[in-house]
User: What shape does this take?
Amino acid sequence: MTRCKAIRLRVDPENIAYVKFILEGHDNLATLSTLDQNRGLVTCTTPLSRLPELLDVLQAIGVEHA
Assistant: This one.
């Protein structure tokens, strides 16, 4: 069984679809779920083995931890 890590993020509400597209485009790096569309709160779930890669991508596109 693969262990996963979920992290909460704050994204500009207009960019939620863009962030999801980027994460899926990186070989399905993470699954993005929207918690509150109006406030831009989302959760990204990724295998623990890919967490460093996810954090690098999020930093590169300017997404902040909530």
